[in-house]
Protein backbone atom coordinates (compact mmCIF):
# COMPACT_ATOMS: atom_id res chain seq x y z
CA UNK A 1 0.00 0.00 0.00
CA UNK A 2 1.38 3.42 -1.01
CA UNK A 3 1.98 6.12 1.56
CA UNK A 4 -0.93 8.36 0.43
CA UNK A 5 -3.32 5.39 0.57
CA UNK A 6 -2.07 4.45 4.03
CA UNK A 7 -2.63 8.01 5.23
CA UNK A 8 -6.12 8.06 3.72
CA UNK A 9 -6.98 4.70 5.31
CA UNK A 10 -5.71 5.88 8.71
CA UNK A 11 -7.72 9.10 8.39
CA UNK A 12 -10.87 7.15 7.55
CA UNK A 13 -10.37 4.90 10.58
CA UNK A 14 -9.78 7.82 12.92
CA UNK A 15 -12.55 10.10 11.64
CA UNK A 16 -15.31 8.42 13.71
CA UNK A 17 -13.18 9.02 16.81
CA UNK A 18 -12.27 12.65 16.08
CA UNK A 19 -14.20 14.03 19.06
CA UNK A 20 -12.50 11.62 21.44
CA UNK A 21 -9.07 12.42 19.99
CA UNK A 22 -9.69 16.12 20.65
CA UNK A 23 -10.70 15.37 24.24
CA UNK A 24 -7.69 13.08 24.61
CA UNK A 25 -5.34 15.83 23.42
CA UNK A 26 -6.77 18.21 26.03
CA UNK A 27 -6.39 15.62 28.80
CA UNK A 28 -2.79 14.93 27.78
CA UNK A 29 -2.05 18.67 27.80
CA UNK A 30 -3.35 18.92 31.38
CA UNK A 31 -1.17 16.02 32.51
CA UNK A 32 1.83 17.50 30.72
CA UNK A 33 1.26 20.76 32.60
CA UNK A 34 1.09 18.78 35.86
CA UNK A 35 4.41 17.08 35.08
CA UNK A 36 6.01 20.46 34.43
CA UNK A 37 4.50 21.91 37.61
CA UNK A 38 5.60 19.06 39.89
CA UNK A 39 8.42 17.14 38.16
CA UNK A 40 9.23 15.12 41.29
CA UNK A 41 5.63 14.05 41.89
CA UNK A 42 3.51 14.58 45.00
CA UNK A 43 3.71 12.79 48.35
CA UNK A 44 0.98 11.45 50.60
CA UNK A 45 2.21 11.57 54.18
CA UNK A 46 2.93 8.10 55.52
CA UNK A 47 1.65 5.89 52.69
CA UNK A 48 4.02 7.19 50.00
CA UNK A 49 7.02 6.70 52.29
CA UNK A 50 5.81 3.17 53.03
CA UNK A 51 5.70 2.27 49.34
CA UNK A 52 9.14 3.71 48.62
CA UNK A 53 10.64 1.89 51.61
CA UNK A 54 9.20 -1.45 50.48
CA UNK A 55 10.48 -0.84 46.96
CA UNK A 56 14.00 -0.63 48.43
CA UNK A 57 13.44 -3.82 50.43
CA UNK A 58 10.59 -5.87 48.85
CA UNK A 59 8.59 -7.91 51.36
CA UNK A 60 4.93 -8.40 52.33
CA UNK A 61 3.76 -5.97 54.98
CA UNK A 62 1.24 -6.62 57.78
CA UNK A 63 -0.46 -3.26 57.17
CA UNK A 64 -1.14 -3.25 53.40
CA UNK A 65 -0.40 -5.25 50.27
CA UNK A 66 2.77 -4.22 48.46
CA UNK A 67 1.94 -4.62 44.76
CA UNK A 68 2.55 -0.92 44.12
CA UNK A 69 5.95 -1.21 45.75
CA UNK A 70 6.71 -4.01 43.28
CA UNK A 71 6.11 -1.56 40.42
CA UNK A 72 8.41 0.97 42.09
CA UNK A 73 11.00 -1.80 42.52
CA UNK A 74 10.81 -2.60 38.78
CA UNK A 75 11.33 1.09 37.97
CA UNK A 76 14.11 1.57 40.51
CA UNK A 77 17.01 1.14 38.02
CA UNK A 78 15.85 4.36 36.32
CA UNK A 79 16.23 6.27 39.65
CA UNK A 80 13.55 8.68 38.44
CA UNK A 81 10.50 9.92 40.32
CA UNK A 82 9.45 11.71 37.14
CA UNK A 83 9.21 8.39 35.30
CA UNK A 84 6.92 6.95 37.98
CA UNK A 85 4.34 9.74 37.83
CA UNK A 86 4.63 9.90 34.03
CA UNK A 87 3.64 6.23 33.81
CA UNK A 88 0.79 6.80 36.27
CA UNK A 89 -0.59 9.52 34.00
CA UNK A 90 -0.29 7.12 31.06
CA UNK A 91 -2.36 4.65 33.10
CA UNK A 92 -4.99 7.32 33.71
CA UNK A 93 -5.22 8.06 30.00
CA UNK A 94 -5.37 4.31 29.27
CA UNK A 95 -8.34 3.94 31.65
CA UNK A 96 -10.24 6.60 29.66
CA UNK A 97 -9.33 4.90 26.36
CA UNK A 98 -10.61 1.53 27.60
CA UNK A 99 -13.79 3.14 28.88
CA UNK A 100 -14.36 4.84 25.53
CA UNK A 101 -13.70 1.57 23.66
CA UNK A 102 -16.20 -0.36 25.80
CA UNK A 103 -18.95 2.21 25.27
CA UNK A 104 -18.37 2.23 21.50
CA UNK A 105 -18.36 -1.57 21.59
CA UNK A 106 -21.83 -1.33 23.12
CA UNK A 107 -22.91 0.52 19.90
CA UNK A 108 -23.32 3.93 21.44
CA UNK A 109 -22.30 6.94 19.32
CA UNK A 110 -18.98 8.70 19.68
CA UNK A 111 -20.35 11.69 21.55
CA UNK A 112 -21.89 9.42 24.20
CA UNK A 113 -18.62 7.51 24.63
CA UNK A 114 -16.70 10.77 24.99
CA UNK A 115 -19.21 12.01 27.56
CA UNK A 116 -18.72 8.79 29.52
CA UNK A 117 -14.94 9.23 29.59
CA UNK A 118 -14.90 12.96 30.43
CA UNK A 119 -14.78 12.55 34.25
CA UNK A 120 -11.74 10.28 34.00
CA UNK A 121 -10.03 12.57 31.47
CA UNK A 122 -10.65 15.97 33.04
CA UNK A 123 -11.53 15.72 36.74
CA UNK A 124 -8.91 17.79 38.57
CA UNK A 125 -8.83 15.50 41.57
CA UNK A 126 -8.33 12.46 39.34
CA UNK A 127 -5.30 14.11 37.75
CA UNK A 128 -3.88 15.02 41.17
CA UNK A 129 -4.30 11.45 42.43
CA UNK A 130 -2.44 10.17 39.36
CA UNK A 131 0.45 12.42 40.38
CA UNK A 132 0.65 11.10 43.95
CA UNK A 133 3.03 8.27 44.85
CA UNK A 134 0.06 6.13 45.78
CA UNK A 135 -1.44 2.88 44.55
CA UNK A 136 -4.74 4.27 43.19
CA UNK A 137 -3.62 4.88 39.58
CA UNK A 138 -2.16 1.38 39.17
CA UNK A 139 -5.09 -0.20 41.02
CA UNK A 140 -7.67 1.53 38.80
CA UNK A 141 -5.75 0.69 35.63
CA UNK A 142 -5.54 -3.03 36.43
CA UNK A 143 -9.22 -3.23 37.41
CA UNK A 144 -10.33 -1.43 34.25
CA UNK A 145 -8.11 -3.62 32.08
CA UNK A 146 -9.62 -6.72 33.67
CA UNK A 147 -13.17 -5.47 33.16
CA UNK A 148 -12.42 -4.51 29.55
CA UNK A 149 -11.24 -8.03 28.78
CA UNK A 150 -14.22 -9.55 30.58
CA UNK A 151 -16.91 -7.40 28.91
CA UNK A 152 -15.51 -7.17 25.39
CA UNK A 153 -17.44 -10.15 24.01
CA UNK A 154 -20.68 -9.58 25.97
CA UNK A 155 -20.86 -5.99 24.66
CA UNK A 156 -20.32 -7.14 21.07
CA UNK A 157 -23.05 -7.68 18.46
CA UNK A 158 -23.53 -11.36 19.34
CA UNK A 159 -23.55 -10.67 23.12
CA UNK A 160 -21.58 -13.86 23.74
CA UNK A 161 -20.47 -14.72 27.23
CA UNK A 162 -16.74 -14.29 27.98
CA UNK A 163 -14.56 -17.16 26.81
CA UNK A 164 -12.18 -18.99 29.10
CA UNK A 165 -9.18 -17.10 27.72
CA UNK A 166 -10.80 -13.76 28.53
CA UNK A 167 -11.74 -15.09 31.95
CA UNK A 168 -8.16 -16.17 32.69
CA UNK A 169 -6.77 -12.78 31.65
CA UNK A 170 -9.40 -10.91 33.67
CA UNK A 171 -8.81 -13.08 36.74
CA UNK A 172 -5.05 -12.50 36.57
CA UNK A 173 -5.50 -8.73 36.22
CA UNK A 174 -7.98 -8.61 39.10
CA UNK A 175 -5.68 -10.59 41.38
CA UNK A 176 -2.81 -8.26 40.47
CA UNK A 177 -5.04 -5.31 41.40
CA UNK A 178 -5.82 -6.96 44.75
CA UNK A 179 -2.11 -7.35 45.46
CA UNK A 180 -1.79 -3.62 44.75
CA UNK A 181 -4.72 -2.79 47.06
CA UNK A 182 -6.55 -5.37 49.12
CA UNK A 183 -9.83 -3.49 48.52
CA UNK A 184 -10.00 -5.43 45.24
CA UNK A 185 -10.49 -8.75 47.08
CA UNK A 186 -14.32 -8.66 47.31
CA UNK A 187 -14.54 -8.13 43.54
CA UNK A 188 -13.43 -11.75 42.99
CA UNK A 189 -16.63 -13.33 44.42
CA UNK A 190 -18.79 -10.51 43.00
CA UNK A 191 -17.58 -11.05 39.42
CA UNK A 192 -17.52 -14.82 39.93
CA UNK A 193 -21.21 -14.70 40.81
CA UNK A 194 -21.90 -12.48 37.81
CA UNK A 195 -20.22 -14.96 35.46
CA UNK A 196 -22.31 -17.81 36.85
CA UNK A 197 -25.46 -15.98 35.73
CA UNK A 198 -24.63 -16.79 32.10
CA UNK A 199 -26.00 -20.07 30.79
CA UNK A 200 -23.10 -22.49 30.80
CA UNK A 201 -21.03 -19.84 32.55
CA UNK A 202 -19.59 -22.21 35.13
CA UNK A 203 -16.62 -23.01 32.85
CA UNK A 204 -15.84 -19.33 32.50
CA UNK A 205 -16.29 -18.84 36.24
CA UNK A 206 -13.89 -21.70 37.02
CA UNK A 207 -11.27 -20.25 34.67
CA UNK A 208 -11.69 -16.79 36.19
CA UNK A 209 -11.60 -18.07 39.77
CA UNK A 210 -8.51 -20.20 39.18
CA UNK A 211 -6.60 -17.38 37.48
CA UNK A 212 -7.51 -15.01 40.31
CA UNK A 213 -6.71 -17.51 43.07
CA UNK A 214 -3.20 -18.57 42.01
CA UNK A 215 -1.45 -15.16 42.43
CA UNK A 216 -3.40 -14.39 45.61
CA UNK A 217 -2.53 -17.74 47.17
CA UNK A 218 1.10 -17.27 46.18
CA UNK A 219 1.21 -13.85 47.84
CA UNK A 220 -0.52 -15.27 50.95
CA UNK A 221 2.10 -18.04 51.17
CA UNK A 222 4.87 -15.46 50.89
CA UNK A 223 3.14 -13.43 53.60
CA UNK A 224 2.98 -16.53 55.82
CA UNK A 225 6.70 -17.17 55.44
CA UNK A 226 7.53 -13.62 56.49
CA UNK A 227 4.78 -12.75 58.99
CA UNK A 228 3.62 -16.12 60.30
CA UNK A 229 -0.01 -16.20 59.14
CA UNK A 230 -1.72 -17.13 55.85
CA UNK A 231 -3.28 -13.85 54.69
CA UNK A 232 -2.77 -10.86 52.43
CA UNK A 233 -2.44 -8.51 55.43
CA UNK A 234 -2.98 -8.72 59.18
CA UNK A 235 -4.33 -5.21 59.74
CA UNK A 236 -8.01 -5.68 58.88
CA UNK A 237 -8.72 -6.10 62.60
CA UNK A 238 -7.55 -2.62 63.66
CA UNK A 239 -9.35 -0.97 60.73
CA UNK A 240 -12.63 -2.76 61.45
CA UNK A 241 -12.21 -1.97 65.16
CA UNK A 242 -11.89 1.71 64.22
CA UNK A 243 -15.06 1.44 62.14
CA UNK A 244 -17.01 0.27 65.21
CA UNK A 245 -15.18 1.98 68.09
CA UNK A 246 -17.20 5.22 68.16
CA UNK A 247 -20.46 3.45 69.03
CA UNK A 248 -19.49 0.00 70.33
CA UNK A 249 -20.89 -0.40 73.86
CA UNK A 250 -19.58 -3.21 76.02
CA UNK A 251 -22.92 -3.32 77.85
CA UNK A 252 -24.59 -4.35 74.57
CA UNK A 253 -21.78 -6.42 73.06
CA UNK A 254 -20.96 -8.35 76.24
CA UNK A 255 -17.52 -9.36 74.97
CA UNK A 256 -15.39 -12.02 76.68
CA UNK A 257 -13.08 -10.86 79.44
CA UNK A 258 -10.00 -10.56 77.23
CA UNK A 259 -11.81 -8.10 74.90
CA UNK A 260 -13.50 -5.82 77.43
CA UNK A 261 -10.62 -3.36 77.54
CA UNK A 262 -11.07 -2.68 73.80
CA UNK A 263 -14.22 -0.59 74.32
CA UNK A 264 -13.49 3.08 73.78
CA UNK A 265 -14.19 5.36 76.80
CA UNK A 266 -17.45 7.29 76.43
CA UNK A 267 -15.69 10.66 76.60
CA UNK A 268 -13.62 9.67 73.56
CA UNK A 269 -16.65 8.25 71.76
CA UNK A 270 -18.40 11.59 72.26
CA UNK A 271 -15.70 13.26 70.14
CA UNK A 272 -16.69 11.13 67.09
CA UNK A 273 -13.13 10.95 65.81
CA UNK A 274 -13.19 9.57 62.23
CA UNK A 275 -11.84 6.00 62.06
CA UNK A 276 -9.20 7.11 59.56
CA UNK A 277 -7.68 9.24 62.35
CA UNK A 278 -8.67 7.17 65.36
CA UNK A 279 -6.79 4.04 64.22
CA UNK A 280 -3.44 5.86 64.42
CA UNK A 281 -3.78 7.59 67.80
CA UNK A 282 -1.23 6.13 70.21
CA UNK A 283 -3.56 6.29 73.26
CA UNK A 284 -6.41 4.14 71.91
CA UNK A 285 -6.97 0.84 73.79
CA UNK A 286 -5.50 -1.48 71.11
CA UNK A 287 -2.24 0.48 70.91
CA UNK A 288 -1.97 0.57 74.67
CA UNK A 289 -2.43 -3.19 74.85
CA UNK A 290 -0.22 -4.28 71.95
CA UNK A 291 3.05 -2.79 70.81
CA UNK A 292 2.11 -3.75 67.25
CA UNK A 293 -1.59 -4.01 66.41
CA UNK A 294 -0.95 -5.95 63.18
CA UNK A 295 0.35 -9.13 64.80
CA UNK A 296 -1.79 -12.23 64.08
CA UNK A 297 -2.98 -12.41 67.71
CA UNK A 298 -3.93 -8.74 67.92
CA UNK A 299 -5.57 -8.82 64.49
CA UNK A 300 -7.72 -11.82 65.39
CA UNK A 301 -8.83 -10.30 68.71
CA UNK A 302 -9.65 -6.91 67.19
CA UNK A 303 -11.57 -8.47 64.30
CA UNK A 304 -13.53 -10.68 66.69
CA UNK A 305 -14.43 -7.67 68.86
CA UNK A 306 -15.56 -5.64 65.84
CA UNK A 307 -17.73 -8.46 64.49
CA UNK A 308 -19.37 -8.86 67.90
CA UNK A 309 -20.08 -5.10 67.90
CA UNK A 310 -21.63 -5.23 64.41
CA UNK A 311 -23.85 -8.18 65.30
CA UNK A 312 -24.94 -6.59 68.59
CA UNK A 313 -25.51 -3.09 67.14
CA UNK A 314 -26.32 -3.51 63.43
CA UNK A 315 -28.26 -0.25 63.18
CA UNK A 316 -25.32 1.78 64.47
CA UNK A 317 -22.99 0.06 62.00
CA UNK A 318 -25.37 0.52 59.07
CA UNK A 319 -25.79 4.19 59.99
CA UNK A 320 -22.03 4.74 60.04
CA UNK A 321 -21.59 3.07 56.64
CA UNK A 322 -24.52 4.97 55.12
CA UNK A 323 -23.07 8.24 56.43
CA UNK A 324 -19.73 7.48 54.77
CA UNK A 325 -21.43 6.62 51.48
CA UNK A 326 -23.36 9.87 51.72
CA UNK A 327 -20.12 11.86 51.88
CA UNK A 328 -19.34 10.61 48.37
CA UNK A 329 -22.37 12.36 46.89
CA UNK A 330 -22.23 15.67 48.76
CA UNK A 331 -21.83 18.91 46.87
CA UNK A 332 -18.86 19.98 48.99
CA UNK A 333 -15.68 18.27 50.10
CA UNK A 334 -15.38 17.77 53.83
CA UNK A 335 -12.05 18.09 55.69
CA UNK A 336 -12.26 14.34 56.26
CA UNK A 337 -10.81 12.43 58.06
CA UNK A 338 -9.06 15.71 58.86
CA UNK A 339 -8.09 18.86 56.99
CA UNK A 340 -4.42 17.81 56.75
CA UNK A 341 -5.29 14.59 54.92
CA UNK A 342 -7.87 16.18 52.60
CA UNK A 343 -5.41 18.93 51.61
CA UNK A 344 -3.07 16.26 50.26
CA UNK A 345 -5.60 15.76 47.44
CA UNK A 346 -5.08 19.36 46.28
CA UNK A 347 -2.23 20.65 44.12
CA UNK A 348 0.16 22.53 46.46
CA UNK A 349 1.78 25.92 45.84
CA UNK A 350 5.01 25.09 47.67
CA UNK A 351 7.38 22.12 48.07
CA UNK A 352 6.43 19.50 50.62
CA UNK A 353 8.30 19.05 53.90
CA UNK A 354 9.44 15.54 54.80
CA UNK A 355 9.33 14.15 58.34
CA UNK A 356 12.39 13.21 60.31
CA UNK A 357 10.90 9.91 61.50
CA UNK A 358 12.10 6.45 60.57
CA UNK A 359 11.85 5.10 57.05
CA UNK A 360 10.18 1.89 55.93
CA UNK A 361 13.05 0.19 54.12
CA UNK A 362 14.15 -1.72 57.21
CA UNK A 363 17.70 -0.46 56.76
CA UNK A 364 17.45 2.35 59.31
CA UNK A 365 17.44 6.00 58.37
CA UNK A 366 14.54 8.31 57.61
CA UNK A 367 11.76 8.48 55.05
CA UNK A 368 13.68 11.24 53.26
CA UNK A 369 16.76 9.04 53.25
CA UNK A 370 14.77 6.25 51.58
CA UNK A 371 13.53 8.64 48.90
CA UNK A 372 17.02 9.96 48.17
CA UNK A 373 18.27 6.37 47.92
CA UNK A 374 15.54 5.57 45.39
CA UNK A 375 16.01 8.58 43.13
CA UNK A 376 18.78 10.57 41.46
CA UNK A 377 16.47 13.54 40.92
CA UNK A 378 18.15 15.39 43.79
CA UNK A 379 15.16 17.28 45.17
CA UNK A 380 12.19 15.00 45.92
CA UNK A 381 9.67 17.85 45.96
CA UNK A 382 9.77 20.66 43.42
CA UNK A 383 7.14 23.20 42.42
CA UNK A 384 7.31 25.32 39.28
CA UNK A 385 4.87 28.08 40.18
CA UNK A 386 3.57 29.25 36.76
CA UNK A 387 2.34 25.77 35.83
CA UNK A 388 1.40 24.92 39.43
CA UNK A 389 -0.88 27.97 39.67
CA UNK A 390 -2.65 26.86 36.49
CA UNK A 391 -3.33 23.40 37.89
CA UNK A 392 -4.41 24.81 41.28
CA UNK A 393 -6.93 27.08 39.53
CA UNK A 394 -8.04 24.26 37.23
CA UNK A 395 -8.67 21.81 40.07
CA UNK A 396 -10.65 24.45 41.95
CA UNK A 397 -13.20 24.70 39.14
CA UNK A 398 -13.11 21.46 37.12
CA UNK A 399 -14.17 18.31 38.94
CA UNK A 400 -17.15 15.97 39.10
CA UNK A 401 -19.59 17.19 41.80
CA UNK A 402 -20.85 14.60 44.26
CA UNK A 403 -24.54 14.98 43.27
CA UNK A 404 -23.65 14.32 39.63
CA UNK A 405 -21.89 11.13 40.68
CA UNK A 406 -25.06 10.23 42.57
CA UNK A 407 -27.10 10.67 39.37
CA UNK A 408 -24.61 8.45 37.55
CA UNK A 409 -25.16 5.74 40.17
CA UNK A 410 -28.95 6.02 39.85
CA UNK A 411 -28.77 5.72 36.05
CA UNK A 412 -26.41 2.76 36.46
CA UNK A 413 -29.02 0.99 38.58
CA UNK A 414 -31.54 1.38 35.74
CA UNK A 415 -28.91 -0.07 33.38
CA UNK A 416 -28.87 -3.27 35.41
CA UNK A 417 -32.63 -3.62 34.85
CA UNK A 418 -32.30 -2.87 31.15
CA UNK A 419 -29.07 -4.59 30.12
CA UNK A 420 -28.89 -7.37 32.70
CA UNK A 421 -25.61 -9.22 33.18
CA UNK A 422 -23.19 -6.89 31.41
CA UNK A 423 -24.39 -3.82 33.27
CA UNK A 424 -24.55 -5.84 36.48
CA UNK A 425 -20.84 -6.65 36.27
CA UNK A 426 -19.89 -2.99 35.81
CA UNK A 427 -22.36 -1.66 38.37
CA UNK A 428 -21.51 -4.41 40.86
CA UNK A 429 -17.85 -3.46 40.60
CA UNK A 430 -18.66 0.23 41.20
CA UNK A 431 -20.85 -0.47 44.23
CA UNK A 432 -18.38 -2.95 45.73
CA UNK A 433 -15.43 -0.57 45.32
CA UNK A 434 -17.43 2.23 46.92
CA UNK A 435 -19.00 0.37 49.84
CA UNK A 436 -16.31 -2.13 50.90
CA UNK A 437 -13.61 0.36 52.01
CA UNK A 438 -16.20 2.39 53.91
CA UNK A 439 -17.71 -0.69 55.55
CA UNK A 440 -14.35 -2.20 56.53
CA UNK A 441 -12.33 0.93 57.30
CA UNK A 442 -13.57 4.47 56.64
CA UNK A 443 -14.52 6.91 53.90
CA UNK A 444 -11.67 8.61 52.05
CA UNK A 445 -11.87 10.73 48.90
CA UNK A 446 -9.14 8.77 47.14
CA UNK A 447 -11.27 5.63 47.36
CA UNK A 448 -13.68 7.20 44.85
CA UNK A 449 -11.09 7.17 42.05
CA UNK A 450 -11.42 3.43 41.17
CA UNK A 451 -15.22 3.67 41.40
CA UNK A 452 -15.63 6.30 38.69
CA UNK A 453 -14.88 4.30 35.49
CA UNK A 454 -17.27 1.49 36.41
CA UNK A 455 -20.07 3.81 37.53
CA UNK A 456 -19.77 5.80 34.27
CA UNK A 457 -19.71 2.60 32.20
CA UNK A 458 -22.82 1.22 33.90
CA UNK A 459 -24.67 4.51 33.37
CA UNK A 460 -23.73 4.56 29.68
CA UNK A 461 -25.04 1.02 29.21
CA UNK A 462 -28.52 2.21 30.25
CA UNK A 463 -28.77 3.87 26.81
CA UNK A 464 -27.15 1.15 24.72
CA UNK A 465 -29.34 -0.99 22.45
CA UNK A 466 -30.14 -4.45 23.71
CA UNK A 467 -29.22 -5.97 20.36
CA UNK A 468 -27.62 -4.97 17.11
CA UNK A 469 -30.92 -3.77 15.56
CA UNK A 470 -32.00 -1.37 18.33
CA UNK A 471 -31.43 2.38 18.57
CA UNK A 472 -28.51 3.87 20.42
CA UNK A 473 -27.60 7.17 22.04
CA UNK A 474 -30.48 9.68 21.97
CA UNK A 475 -32.63 7.12 20.15
CA UNK A 476 -32.17 4.70 23.02
CA UNK A 477 -33.12 7.39 25.53
CA UNK A 478 -36.32 8.13 23.58
CA UNK A 479 -37.17 4.42 23.19
CA UNK A 480 -36.57 3.81 26.89
CA UNK A 481 -38.77 6.74 27.92
CA UNK A 482 -41.53 5.66 25.53
CA UNK A 483 -41.51 2.05 26.72
CA UNK A 484 -41.48 3.21 30.35
CA UNK A 485 -44.49 5.45 29.72
CA UNK A 486 -46.41 2.62 28.08
CA UNK A 487 -45.54 0.25 30.92
CA UNK A 488 -46.74 2.81 33.46
CA UNK A 489 -49.99 3.31 31.56
CA UNK A 490 -50.67 -0.42 31.45
CA UNK A 491 -50.12 -0.84 35.18
CA UNK A 492 -51.70 2.39 36.45
CA UNK A 493 -54.90 2.59 38.43
CA UNK A 494 -56.72 3.78 35.30
CA UNK A 495 -55.84 0.71 33.36
CA UNK A 496 -55.59 -1.77 36.25
CA UNK A 497 -53.14 -4.66 36.02
CA UNK A 498 -51.54 -5.44 32.64
CA UNK A 499 -54.06 -7.09 30.30
CA UNK A 500 -57.19 -6.07 32.25
CA UNK A 501 -60.16 -4.29 30.74
CA UNK A 502 -60.34 -0.49 30.85
CA UNK A 503 -62.17 0.84 33.91
CA UNK A 504 -65.36 2.77 33.61
CA UNK A 505 -65.66 6.48 34.32
CA UNK A 506 -68.82 6.48 36.45
CA UNK A 507 -68.98 6.84 40.23
CA UNK A 508 -69.59 3.10 40.55
CA UNK A 509 -66.04 2.26 39.44
CA UNK A 510 -64.46 0.21 42.22
CA UNK A 511 -61.09 0.90 43.79
TrEMBL record:
Keywords: Cell membrane, Glycosyltransferase, Membrane, Transferase, Transmembrane, Transmembrane helix. It is a multi-pass membrane protein. The chain crosses the membrane at residues 80-103, 110-127, 133-152, 173-198, 204-223, 398-417, 423-440, 447-464. InterPro entries: ArnT-like_N, LipidA_mod_glycosyltrf_83. The keyword Transferase applies. Residues 85-209 form the ArnT-like N-terminal domain. The keyword Cell membrane applies. Residues 489-511 are annotated as: Disordered. PANTHER family: MANNOSYLTRANSFERASE YKCB-RELATED, MEMBRANE PROTEIN. This is Phospholipid carrier-dependent glycosyltransferase.
Amino acid sequence: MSAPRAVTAARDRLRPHALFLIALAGAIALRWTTLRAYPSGLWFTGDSYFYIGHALNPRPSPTRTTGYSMLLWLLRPAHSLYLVVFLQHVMGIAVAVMLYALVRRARLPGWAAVLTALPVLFDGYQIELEHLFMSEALFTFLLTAGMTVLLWRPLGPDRARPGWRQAVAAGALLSAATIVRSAGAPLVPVLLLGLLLWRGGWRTAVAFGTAAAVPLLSYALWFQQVNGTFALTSSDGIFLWGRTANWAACSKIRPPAHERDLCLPKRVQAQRIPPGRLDWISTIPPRKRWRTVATPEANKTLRDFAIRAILAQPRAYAGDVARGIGYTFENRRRPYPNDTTEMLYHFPDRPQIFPGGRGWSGHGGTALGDILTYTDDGTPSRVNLPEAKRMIAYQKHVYLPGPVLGVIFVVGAFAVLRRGRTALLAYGAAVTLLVFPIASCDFDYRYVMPVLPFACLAAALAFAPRNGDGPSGAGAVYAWARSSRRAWARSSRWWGSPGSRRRGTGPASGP
